[in-house]
Amino acid sequence: MQEQESRAASYTTLAPGQDFRHEIEIKRSRFITVLRRAGTEEAARDLVAGLRREFHDARHHCSAFIIGPDRDIQRSSDDGEPSGTAGIPMLEALAKRATAAGVADLSDVSAVVVRYFGGVLLGAGGLVRAYSESVSSALALAPMVRRSRLRVCAVEVPHAAAGRLENDLRAAGFVMAETSYAARHTVLRVAVPDESAAIASAAERVQLLTAGNAHLTTEGTEWVDVPIS
Question: What gap in Å lies between CA 6 and CA 193, rounded to an integer?
Answer without folding.
Answer: 14
